[in-house]
Amino acid sequence: MKKNLPVKSYLLRLCAVIALVGLIAYTLYHVAFSSEGSLMTTPSRKVTDTQTLTAKGYLFRHESVLYAEGEGLLYSLVSDGTKASKNTPLVEHRAQFSGGALATAQQKLDALCRSIAILEAGQSAVGAPLTQANNHRAEANALRISIKQMLGHTDRLSLAQSEDALLVALNRYAAVMGNDGAADALLNELRAERDALLSSPATVYYNTESSGRFYSRDFVDGYESLFTPEALQALNTESFHALTKALQTPAQTEGFAVGKIVYDHIWSLALRVPSPQTGSFAVGKQFEASFPENHGRTLELTCTNLIPEASGDLIAVFSCEDSPADFQFLRAQSVKLTLSSSEGYYVPASALVRLEDGAAGVYIFESRTVRWRWVVVLYEGNGYCIVEEQNGRQGYLGLNDLLITYGTDLYDGRVYE
């Protein structure tokens, strides 16, 4: 026979069900509330943000190539980059070699001259105090590191110059530590071998024009007659495209070049500026430029002309009065321009709030409370901006304030328990 449960038992069961439902409702409410009220923050920090543009620059200079009547063995009388006044002897030309024999003889002569120059430079340290040895060793170690970094990222001429500098440093170190006469004997042998190659009569080529800097045949690229000051003066969109296209095919020289003279210390670069960066350029503005193919060498360039393109891009022309002796004046090389530099607080784009009147601000989290802070935007990049440091000005973003990068229903004064 079925027994009836007392009323008290039913009440207990009912209370348990109600409590369970209430617990579930309480849990769901707080999950929803915490989801709606969750925040993501990051502290503001001070940074220096540099905006740059990397492009291919094309070289224009006043250059004149020296040509011989025919091919022959070349022996430079002055080093590359040397300033030569009018009537200075520049190079000797010997016509007793031709074809494959000329190539072999020229390669041998160049190697001999290179070795002699390295040994002669090293011998300059003979008799120096022992304290100089550490300096030469440190220089050699620095050059080793530089050469490793350059491998595969620079032209052969630049690499060869660094290799020569390394050998000179090592020879100077050896000369300081003790000169046993071996270097002198080797120098005499190399000079005798060089002089044997140069024993036949030679035609000497002079600088017959005004003074300028001389560069050997290795620096003649065949485009000297195209990238001229006159071409730069008349540069427009069509001619710029034609010149850059000409670099895609091998240059044709007028004869057997023995070297070239660069007459003006001012040289120019032309490059294309994409439309998003065109606002950073103005005629007369100076830019700091670094050249990756020249060991990152930094020079100052002055904008001298801006040529607009139909696409919205610009062709920007720059001039430079600095001509370092060890700088590789490649016809086309990468150049990294510093457009501007902004110093202030880094603010992620997700934290920035733009108002209808153009003003801007951010929300920060302070003492469990949402607070509004004004900002003055200096620069907007991809996914971030740099805002001006206000040095503790009331109501503005400060250093290490907790920026709210994510949150819902944010307003000044909202309290989080």
CATH superfamily (homologous) name of the domain at 52-61 and 223-248 and 264-342:
Efflux pump adaptor protein, beta barrel domain
Could you estimate the helical fraction of the residues in percent? Answer: 25-40%
Could you give the distance between the termini?
57 Å
* pLDDT < 50 runs, ≥5 residues: 28-36
Beta content comes to: 25-35%
Molecular structure report:
The structure is a single chain. This protein is an alpha+beta fold. Among the domains are: 40-47 and 343-406, conserved putative lor/sdh protein from methanococcus maripaludis s2 fold; 52-61 and 223-248 and 264-342, Elongation Factor Tu (Ef-tu), domain 3, CATH 2.40.30.170; 97-199, no CATH class. The chain has 7 helices and 20 strands. The protein has helices at residues 7-37, 99-123, 131-150, 156-177, 182-197, 229-233, 237-246; strands spanning 40-43, 45-60, 63-68, 73-76, 82-84, 89-94, 203-206, 212-216, 256-262, 267-273, 286-291, 297-308, 314-320, 332-348, 352-354, 360-366, 369-375, 377-380, 384-387, 402-406. The strands form 5 sheets. The protein has a 6-stranded antiparallel beta barrel with strand order 2-10-13-12-11-14. It has a 4-stranded antiparallel beta sheet with strand order 3-9-8-5, with no helix packed on it. It has a 3-stranded antiparallel beta sheet with strand order 4-6-7. β12 (297-308) and β13 (314-320) form a beta hairpin. α2 packs across α4 (156-177), α2 (99-123) runs antiparallel to α5 and α3 (131-150) runs antiparallel to α4. The chain is elongated. The model is unreliable at 28-36 (pLDDT under 50).
